[in-house]
Amino acid sequence: AALSRYNVAIALSRFRRFADARDFAQAALRDFKKFGAAAANEVEDTERLLAEIDQGIQEQGS
Q1: Is the pTM of this model over 0.85?
Q2: Separation CA 16–CA 44 (nearest Å)
Q3: Sign of the C-alpha dihedral, residues 25, 30, 36, 38?
Q4: 45 vs 60: CA distance, rounded Å
Q5: Dihedral (Cα; 2, 12, 48, 54), 10-degree rounding
Q6: What's the 3-state SS for the chain?
Q7: Nearest-CA neighbor of 17 among 28, 26, 9, 6?
Q8: For each successive 10 residues of the chain (62 residues), what is the average pLDDT?
């Protein structure tokens, strides 16, 4: 489920639907964190995606 949510977040962000993308990315991050060290790379990637989404939200608001 976490990987699917992550992929949906990417797709939504490409269509500039940042609020929805953020919701999916946050859900993915919560899911990945449940796996602990085994999902460290996925957690890092998702945190990076959230930063990009937040930047998109800021740019959209300008």
Answers
A1: yes
A2: 22
A3: negative
A4: 22
A5: -130
A6: CHHHHHHHHHHHHHCCCHHHHHHHHHHHHHHHHCCHHHHHHHHHHHHHHHHHHHHHHHHHHC
A7: 9
A8: 98 98 99 98 99 97 76
